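In this section we walk through a basic example: taking a raw amino acid sequence and producing a predicted 3D structure, encoded as discrete structure tokens. The instruction is simple. Fold the sequence below.
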Amino acid sequence: MFPSLKYTFSGHDSFQCRLLWLKKGYDYLREGRSFTADDAPVVLGVGNNMVRAIKHWLRAFGLVDETTDTPTKLADLIFGGRGTVAPFDAFLEDNATLWLLHYQLVKTRFASTYWLIFNEFRKRKIEFTREDYGRFIEQKGREEGFSISPKSIADDFGVFLKMYHRGIAERGAKTKDREDSFSGILTELNLVHSFPRKTEDGKGEIPVYVITPSDRDDIPADWILYCLLDSPSIGLSVSLETLENDPGMPCAVFAMNRAGLRRKIEQLVSQYDFLTYNDQAGVRELQFREKPADKYQVLRDYYVPANV
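The resulting token sequence is shown next.
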């Protein structure tokens, strides 16, 4: 369903993406500027390493072309499109937009940790520690012929936590500076939770993390349809089993359970007359009478309802 994965675990300079970084970077590029310009730190109001991090996150979220740094159509729709199109949600005030960005971060696979954690690792380890993830990546490297230093693995996992976990400061850790304490862009999704566990010697505690599948009532059903239209391998029908279990599909990416998926399918079928759901003779699949040519229309339907 997806091409071979080239694994990358760096580029963020250990900075999680902050809430307004994507808009700041988008506006900067739409002004015709370059991240390599000498005055980039001054114009963006951040240090050199944060300039690199902003560039990294725009690519990781699929908001700019990886080779030209040209904003994508999705970026134009969210942030405003050269002033000619009203932005969908330029300041990311709707949690639905954060879910869309989460999908983008996992789907683009520019930053490998997010694809691996949501599609594979969390299914192997329901409860996991930083060390568990390190062992998983080391094994993955042996199986698929790549190597990465333990420090790089730890740094990348630390950034993952800062992106998603509200209580990122692990027990005993100290925030180095005020800038480092800013929450990651996706903490509001409450996807990653933690609890303390006693160490083997019983003298201390370590944080254990969990991503628990749920109904995900706060995800618009439209996002499930957008995911399918965004997947070139999906034809005129897709089985419930595929939607539940395959990498890159809604239940994997959003950590959604079957009940939540079924409810969203019901909403989609009642909302769009080109969709039907077949649950007969052992066949359970969502079917398209015809597939919309423009996947972005699904987003327009959500952000700009026809009756407005």
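Looking at the output, two observations stand out. The mean pLDDT is 90. Residues 130-144 form the longest helix (15 residues). In the next section we compare this with other chains.
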